Amino acid sequence: MLNRDDRPTRPEPATRRRETFTGNRALQLEEPLLFEVGRTDVTGVDIDVPEHAGDRLGRHRRKAPIGLPALSEPEALRHYVRLSQKNYAIDSGLYPLGSCTMKHNPRLNEAAARLPGFADLHPLAPQATVQGALELIHELGRWLIEITGMHSVAMSPKAGAHGELCGMMAIKAAVRARGEDRTIVLVPESAHGTNPATAALLGFTVVAVPAREDGTVAAAEVRRLAGEHEGRIAAIMLTNPNTCGLFEPEVCEIAAAVHAAGGYFYCDGANLNAILGKVKPGALGVDAMHINLHKTFSTPHGGGGPGAGPVVLSEALAPHAPLPAILRGTDGGYRLVEHAEDEAALAPFGRMTAFHGQMGMFVRAYAWMLSHGADGMRQAAEDAVLNANYVRAGVQDLMSVPYPAHPAMHEALFDDGFLDGTGVTTLDFAKAMIDEGFHPMTVYFPLVVHGAMLVEPTESESRASLDVFVATLRDLAMAAKRGQTERFKDAPRFAPRRRLDETRAARQPVLKWSPPEPIEDAAE
Amino acid sequence: MVLRYTKDHEWVNAEGDVATIGITAYAADQLGDVVYVELPEVGQKVAKGDATATVESVKAASDVYAPVSGEVVEVNSELGDTPQRVNEAPESAGWFMKLRLSKPAELDALMDDETYRDFTDSL
Fold first, then answer.
1. Which residue of B8, B59, B79, B123 to mutate against A (max A Cβ within 10 Å)?
2. Which residues 427-466 on chain A approach chain B with CB closer than 8 angstroms?
3. Is A384 helix (H, G, I), strand (E, B) or coil?
4. Residue of B7, B33, B65 best to disrupt the A interface, most CBs of A under 10 A
5. Which residues have CB under 8 Å from A177's CB, separation 6+?
6. Model confidence over A400-458: pLDDT tens digits?
7. B71-108, pLDDT tens digit by residue?
8. What pLDDT, on a 0 to 100 scale, did the predictor assign at position A94?
9. pLDDT of residue A430
C-alpha cells in the first residue's frame, strides 16, 4: 500500500537489506518488541510457591493465561537499555526543537535534587520536619517574583499548560468576583495551541487576533476587537517573545488596551528564557504568566521530566491564587496553608494539585538560579538570543526568513519558500536532518508561516557546535536546490526505522499488540 | 453544478434551498493527508461564519466555517471511517454537510470559480 507521496505505508527497518547475518549494525542491536522477545509458555523467574499461603481468590482466580511474555532479569534489562540507546536526548547532541527550549540539564542540579533531605520527603510529613523544603519552595517563588516583577506566585502547577489553566482560572475567578460575566478571550494566530485550548476548556469563546505582515500583533487590532466585543473581553493570551521568535513591540499598548476594556493580560511564559534578566513581564502589564521551569530554568523534560509550571500573578489576581500557599511567619518559620479559612486574605479558586508541586524540579531550578546568579541568568538569555541570530545569519542567504524586519529573539524561524520547486517539503528536510545526526527543528509551527521550521539552539551550544549545525543546514539546502531529492524523500535512511506513515497511524491507529501472522514467502 | 467559494476555502453547491458544503481542493492540498473530520449534528442551526466542522490533517487541525446560514440537514458520515475522501475528491465525494438555507441571498457574496482561482493564485 502506498500513501499520497507514493511511500510504502508499512515502516521497514533501515536494515532491510541485511548487511549483516544478524540484522544488527555493529553494536547497535536490532530490538524486537517485548512481546516478541519473551514467550508466554516459559517463566523468567523461578520463585517457590509459599508454603502456608492459602488461596483466597476464590471465583476471582484467573481461568486463562494472561499472555504476558516471560523474561529473565537480564533479558528485560537489556530490552530497555537497548531501547534507551536508540533514544536521542539533549545529553547526546544538539536538540534545536523550537519553542521547547531543550537546554542542558546541569549535573549540579541533579546532585542537589538527590540530597536525601529533599529527595526522600513525604508530602504529608509534619511541617516542622520539612522547614528546609518549605524554605526552598518559598525562596524559589521569591526569585520568580523578583525576576518577573510580579506580585505573587502559585507554585503547584505541574507543566506549562497546567500553569496556563491555573492563570486563566485565577482570571475567571477575578472576573466572577467583580460580579461580571465575560466570555471572550483574545488569542493571536501565532499562539501555542494550548492557549486557545485552555480558554475553551474554561468555557471561554476564543477570538483570534490576526498576525501583522511582520509577524507581530498590532495594538490597534486588539483595540478594534475590544471595541467590537465591549464588556465581554475576559483576557488576552499573548506569548512574548511570540512563537515567530519576535519580541512584540506593542506589548505595553496591547496590555493597556485590554486593561482599558476591563480584561486581564495572560502572558504565555514559554519563551521567558529569551528575556530573563532583561525585561520584567510585570512592567509590561502582565497579570498572569506561567513559567516553564523545564525550559527557562534548565530542569529536564521531553521524557526526562516531569515539568513544572509555577504561575506568577499581578496584585489584582493574587488573592485568587490556588492553594497551597507557603507563608513566612514572623518567627522566620514557614507555614504551608492548605485551607482557605486558615488565611483571611486568600480567596483561592481551589487547588491545581493534590500536594505541593514538583519538589524535585523546584530544587533543580533553584540550584540553576543560585549557580548562575542574576548576571549569569541574564547572560544565559543573551547567549540564547545570540545563538539563534547566529544560526539565522549563517543560513539566511540559502533559507527563507519570513520576518526579516525584526531580529530573532531566542529562536530563528524559516519558511519553506527556499524549497519552492525542489520537490522537497519541510517534513522531508526535517527527516534528512535525522540522517545527519541532529534532532529536527520544530516543523509546521507556528501555523502562520507556510512550512515553518523553528530553530532554537539555546545558550547551551558552543560556537563550534553551531558552526557544524549551520554547515549542515547549508549543505541540505544546497542539496535540495541541486535536485538531490532522494536524500530527502528516502530520509531517514540510517535510523533504526525508516520514515513512519503518520497518515496511516492517525487514520488506522493500532492500539493493541497482536501476534504477527506468520510471514509467507511470495509464490514459488 | 456551479460551485461558489469563500476566502476560507469552503465550497458551496446550492440546489434549490439546500446547499452542499465542503473544503476546496486547494485547502485539501494545503492541509495534507486528512486523518479526521468532526461534523455537526443534523438539526443544528448555524450562522454564516460559525465554526461548524473541524478537519484534522497530519499537519494541523482547522475549523471549517459555515459559508452561509442554515440548518444542517445531512452530514457525510462516510468521512468518519474514510477521511481520505477529503483528499481524493474534495469537491465531490469528500463533501462535509448539507444545509437548508435560511438566507439564500448570502450566496451572492461568495466567489465564483474564476475569482476563487485568482484568489488562490495570489496566496
1. B59
2. 444, 447
3. helix
4. B33
5. A320, A347
6. 999 999 999 999 999 999 999 999 999 999 999 999 999 999 999 998 899 999 999 99
7. 999 999 999 999 999 999 999 999 999 999 999 999 99
8. 96
9. 97
**Is A426 within a domain?**
no
Cell of B99: 444545509
- By the CB < 8 Å criterion, does A506 face chain B? yes
CB A157 within 8 A of CB A290: yes
Query: Is residue A191 left, alpha or beta, with left meaning phi > 0 and alpha meaning psi from -120 to 50?
Result: beta
Kindly state the cell numbers that stand for A68: 504476558
Question: What residue type is A12 in one-letter code?
Answer: E
Distances (CA, A) of B109 to A88, B96, B106: 53, 21, 6
List A residues 136-155 in contact with B (Cβ-Cβ < 8 A): none
Collapsing DSSP states into helix, strand and coil, what is residue B55?
A: strand
Instruction: Verify whether the Cβ–Cβ distance B58 to A3 is below 8 Å.
Output: no
Q: Specify the CATH number for the domain of residue A359.
A: 3.40.640.10
- Cα A36 from Cα A511, distance rounded (Å): 16
| Other CB atoms within 10 Å distance of the CB of residue A49 | 5
What does the buried/exposed string (b/e) look like for A136-154 if buried means 16 or more CB atoms within 10 Å of the residue's CB?
Answer: bbbbbbebbbebbebbbbb
- Complex ipTM: 0.75
pLDDT under 50 in chain A at which residues?
Answer: 1-3, 7-9, 11, 15, 522-524
Q: What is the per-residue pLDDT for A65?
A: 80
Pairing of strands B45-46, B70-75: antiparallel
Identity of the amino acid at B35: V
B95: distance to nearest CA of chain A, Å? 18
Question: Nearest by CB to A507, which of B59, B60, B83?
Answer: B83
Give which of A132, A479, A149, A158 is closest to A299, Cα–Cα. Answer: A158
Residue A367 main-chain phi, psi, to 5 deg? -60, -40
Q: Which three cell numbers stand for residue A213?
A: 505582515
CA atoms within 13 A on the CB side of A298: 27
Q: In the prediction, which pLDDT does A524 show?
A: 42
| A233: its cell numbers | 473581553
Residue A270 and residue A289: Cα distance in Å, rounded? 9
Q: Residue A302 in contact with residue A327, Cβ under 8 Å? A: no
Question: What does the DSSP 8-state code read for residue A268?
Answer: E
Rounded CA separation B65/B47 (Å): 9
Secondary structure of residue A203 in the 3-state scheme: coil
Give me the domain span that covers residue A208.
108-367
Q: Is residue A63 part of a domain?
A: no
Instruction: Report the C-alpha gap between B123 and B118 in whole angstroms.
Output: 9
- Which CATH code for domain B4-117? 2.40.50.100
Q: What angle do CA A184, B57, A483 make, to 5 degrees?
A: 125
Q: Would you call B83 an interface residue with chain A, using a CB distance cutoff of 8 Å?
A: yes
pLDDT of residue A363: 98
Of B58, B60, B87, the CB nearest to A506: B58
Give the whole-angstrom CA distance, residue A495 versus residue A488. Answer: 13
For residues B7-26, average pLDDT: 95
Pairwise CA distance, residues A206 & A216, whole Å: 19
Task: Evaluate whether residue A253 is within a structural domain.
Answer: yes
Q: Is residue A438 part of a domain?
A: no
DSSP A369: H
A52 lies within 8 A of chain B by CB: no
Residue A512 has a CB neighbour count (10 Å cut-off) of 5
